Amino acid sequence: MVLRSPLIVLVLLAVGCQPPGKIVRGPYLQQTGATSTFIVWQTDRPLTGAVHYGTRSTRQREQRAPNRRTMHAVRLHGLSPGTTYVYRISAGGRTTRVFRFTTATADAQSLTFGVIGDFGSGSSAERRNAELLEAEPVDLVLTVGDNVYPFGTEREYPRALFGPFGSLMHRIALWPSLGNHDYGAEEGVPLRGTAVAYLRNFVLPARPGGERYYSFRRGNAEFLAIDSERTSFAPGSPQYQWIARTLARSHACWKIPYFHHPVHPEYEHPMAGDLTRQAQLERWLVPLFERYGVKLVLTGHEHNYVRTRPLIGGHPNQRGIVYIISGGGGAGLDPLPPQSSPLSAARGRFFQHLLVSIHRRRAEVRAIDAAGRVRDRVRLAC
Predict the structure, then answer these.
(1) Contact 309, 316 (CB under 8 A)
(2) What pairs with residue 326 in β-bridges?
(3) E strand or H helix at 374, and its extent?
(4) Model pLDDT, residue 191
(5) What value does the CA radius of gyration of the chain take, rounded to a whole number of Å?
(6) How many structural domains is the chain composed of?
(7) Cβ distance 229 to 180 under 8 Å?
(8) Which residues contact 188 (CB under 8 A, 6 or more apart)?
């Protein structure tokens, strides 16, 4: 073994003989649709890179990253709907193994997606939920906030998100929404309010909400990711106007808002801010949901599972909206009050994710615990 002196090492570095850079995160998918997707990865230093892909071989096509950087997001476009592609990435003289993804089917009447919330803790329960979602036939995954704990910082993402979900994210896009911990909020700690690490790691539609709120369409479903934590949704605000406009214009049978704070929680020991947010949601957004034909609303924040009866104006009505709290993704569970709310149809204190299957005007929602058992099931029509 030849030992180099520190002086020789410095000289080698000075003349450009640095060790090659490496890929430290990814690749993972974002915004996968029928004809495009983003491939995202991170390197340990600013590098150029490329995506090599095709339907039969990764040698068929190449899309290069435009600049030297550490966070790379390359958009592949002109893809064929409902088609499986193979891909790999190269950067710093290194190449990954081959991965695969499948584009969305244009105008598909059937769709299966997962939902998970309050999960980014790195716990065994989170890992088990991730394993189950990876084994299930999901086309995409929604998150209802608190993607990492406790402060939403960059250093938490490897343990809290990419460790448990990295394998799934190689081939399936996550469509997240913001929770209080993504903004750096924790009881007794001042709210940082930036969500900078969330905006760095997720590549989301920039308009209209600067990636903090957005919508996308898949087949017969319109999804609205709403920021219920920091971006105002009061009447007259840009987010409120966007929600109203998106719901009014959409011809989708299924209009599905998803966000962090619950509309009809069963809090055991609520904080004042939680009750304020609940009142705002009921006063401002529920009338929009009811006016424009929403049948399902997905939320988290409360670390357990609660499903309401169909509701209109806060009262049971078979033509109303079902609100589901799926906050048992992996963080410590919250207690439930001894007595169930008269608005609730099902509830439980267990780790879980949702599996939602849509076929034309019918949908089935299943709450699946960390052992893979179906703990609740509801069928809906739009």
Answers:
(1) yes
(2) 305
(3) strand 374-381
(4) 52
(5) 22
(6) 2
(7) yes
(8) none
358, 253 Cβ separation under 8 angstroms: no
The pLDDT of residue 65 is 86
Residue 278, helix vs strand vs coil: helix
CA distances from 49 to 27, 95, 166 (A): 12, 10, 20
Judgement on whether residues 174 and 65 belong to the same structural domain of the protein: no
Pick from 114, 125, 123, 260: nearest CA to 182: 260
| The overall pTM is greater than 0.90 | yes
Backbone region of residue 156 per phi and psi (left: phi > 0; alpha: psi in -120 to 50; beta: other values): alpha
Peptide bond into 337 cis (omega under 30): no
Residue-wise pLDDT tens digits, 29-70: 999 999 999 999 999 999 999 999 999 999 999 999 878 889
Residues 81 and 124 in one domain: no
For 46, the domain range is 23-102
Q: Tell me whether residue 53 is in a domain.
A: yes
* Helix ranges restricted to H, the chain: 6-14, 124-135, 157, 163-169, 196-201, 238-249, 272-280, 286-291
CA 362 to chain centroid, in Å, comes to 23
- Tokens 């999901």 belong to which residue? 138
| 93 & 128 share domain | no
DSSP letter (8 states) at residue 155: G
Rounded distance, CA 213 to CA 177, Å?
7
Residue 338: pLDDT band with limits 50, 70, 90: very high
What does the pLDDT look like over 253-269, one tens digit per residue? Answer: 999 999 999 999 999 88
> Residue 169 has which token pair?
């994210």
Domain shared by 95 and 140, yes or no: no
- pLDDT tens track for 70-129: 999 999 999 999 999 999 999 988 899 999 999 999 888 899 999 999 999 999 999 999
186, part of any domain: yes
